[in-house]
Amino acid sequence: MIESLVVTLFPVLFLTVLFSSGEILRRKNIDMGGEPPIDRNLFSTSKYSIMIVWAAMVLRSWSIILPIEITRMFKWPSLFLWISGFILLFIGRFGLGSSFRIGSPKEATHLKVDGLYRFSRNPMYVGVYSTLLASFLYTMNPLIFFIALFIIVVHHKIVLAEEQYLQKVFGEEYLQYCSRIRRYL
After folding, report:
1. pTM of the prediction?
2. E strands within the chain?
3. CA–CA separation, 30 vs 32, rounded Å?
4. Residue 120 in contact with residue 126, Cβ under 8 Å?
5. Would you say the C-alpha torsion 161, 13, 24, 49 has a positive or negative sign?
6. Total domains, the chain
7. pLDDT 10s digits, 65-83
8. Is residue 163 part of a domain?
9. Measured distance CA(90)–CA(43) in Å, rounded
10. pLDDT tens for residues 122-151?
11. Could you tell me if residue 185 is inside a domain?
């Protein structure tokens, strides 16, 4: 039961923080919903698909789907990846502060190069990828694998498009940052 509560708590808290911070930013006349850097439908499908994969892990933890016991060989690594991924998501989200957008900003923001962004240009994407891998390992469901793979491929395209945007907006400062810090790890 504790395992199920932990598995459930992380995505619920993250989505709560995400949506409540969006409301706080709106009160400051900041639109958290940026412009999709790739095709709008593909962008939205991949973002919402994350919640499907997360839901599969949560439902599996409560034995609602696949009520079979998973081996320790997959259980503990998946829980580690799950918790680590959400920690990266939380720290990355708070590290961006009012510069956080889902998509490319419509207004001026600041280039964040401190905190987790000293180690990865995209710690939140690393966090998402970690939770996707965790969900697959925890469920061992081929459908979850293919949905996760789709999300990773689309999100990599988003990252590449965001990099072009950041280079255009921040120029040499961003190029220097890229030369020091890796895209993911």
Report:
1. 0.94
2. none
3. 6
4. yes
5. positive
6. 1
7. 766 677 788 999 999 999 9
8. yes
9. 21
10. 999 999 999 999 999 999 999 999 999 999
11. no
